[in-house]
Amino acid sequence: MANVITFANQKGGVGKTTTAANLGACLAETGRSVLLIDFDSQGNLSSSMGADRDAPGIYQVLDGETEARAAIQETPQERMHIITGGADLTGASVELVNQARREFFLREAIKPVRDDYDFIFIDSPPSLGLLTLNALAAADNVVIPLQTEYFALEGLTQLLQNIKRVQGSFNVDLELFGILFTMYDSRTRLANDVVQEVIGYFGKRVFRTIIPRNIRLSEAPSHGIPVNLYDAECVGARSYRKLAEEVLQRVETASAR
Ligand SMILES: Nc1ncnc2c1ncn2[C@@H]1O[C@H](COP(=O)(O)OP(=O)(O)O)[C@@H](O)[C@H]1O
Ligand SMILES: [Mg+2]
């Protein structure tokens, strides 16, 4: 049964999509099978993998129009697949509002393929709306990417409250898997202060691996490939490989408990 991990933060531009794509690719490099689900109406994850966004995606699966398995596409990374997302998801959040069990649509939608992968990654939109609730209700784990900047902590309390709410209602098994620092610039003292403050508060929940700012990470998406295939030895690729190892260790530790 796949470990379902949702990447969430209602702030945009913090590295959710970049992390889903590149952590996924690095886990696939180690031999694990990974399914990416693009659950953002911007469809950035889909385009960063060069996926066909005209083919049926997660919206059509939620809708019942397409079977989950039929919506799966290959990506340039071996062992990593994707179900695309896009503009039609904006409609989904409206259409779901009046449905019974409206928080569970994604959870139900991915059930048929849960046994087919080691990891399913859900990239969520920059909001705390119904799509993000669905993404949290469908997950075993949540990863919160945080940009190392002064306002990074703004909104974090609200996000954590939402996660607690989901844990208390729709998904008692949801775990805060970790907090991930992204776009780190070691030259600024501020970045270091933010890191220290968050570690002080969240302790071991913070991933030891910190993703630095790296131009390769921002270039790879326009080529439709993950960073490890774009420039295998750049610092961005090496960082996500290191994160993949840390994730695997955490999964082992958690299953030993
Ligand atoms: N570590 C990094 N170094 C440099 N650029 C990055 C890094 N992580 C993300 N980016 C770039 O920053 C922008 C926002 O990242 P993205 O992953 O799309 O955030 P989100 O999904 O949270 O909105 C994108 O243009 C992406 O390419
Ligand atoms: Mg995104």
Would you kindly provide a written description of the structure presented here, covering whatever features stand out?
The chain has 257 residues and is of the alpha/beta class. 41% of the residues lie in helices and 14% in strands. It is built from eleven helices and seven strands. The protein has helices spanning 16-29, 44-48, 58-62, 88-96, 105-110, 130-137, 156-168, 189-202, 215-219, 227-230, 235-256, and strands at 3-7, 34-38, 73-74, 80-83, 119-123, 141-147, 175-182. Strand 6, helix 7 (156-168) and strand 7 form a beta-alpha-beta unit. Helix 1 (16-29) crosses helix 11 (235-256). It is globular, with a radius of gyration of 17 Å. The site of magnesium ion has 5 residues, from helix 1.
Summarize the SSE layout with pairings.
Layout: E1 3-7, H1 16-29, E2 34-38, H2 44-48, H3 58-62, E3 73-74, E4 80-83, H4 88-96, H5 105-110, E5 119-123, H6 130-137, E6 141-147, H7 156-168, E7 175-182, H8 189-202, H9 215-219, H10 227-230, H11 235-256
Parallel strand pairs: 1-5, 1-6, 2-4, 2-5, 6-7
Antiparallel strand pairs: 3-4
Helix pairs in contact: 1-11
The structure holds adenosine-5'-diphosphate and magnesium ion.
Adenosine-5'-diphosphate (ADP) is lined by residues 12-18, 44, 126, 182-183, 211, 213-214, 217-218, 221.
Task: Give a quick rundown of the structure.
This protein is α/β, with parallel strands linked by helices and 257 residues long. Helices cover 41% and strands 14% of the residues.
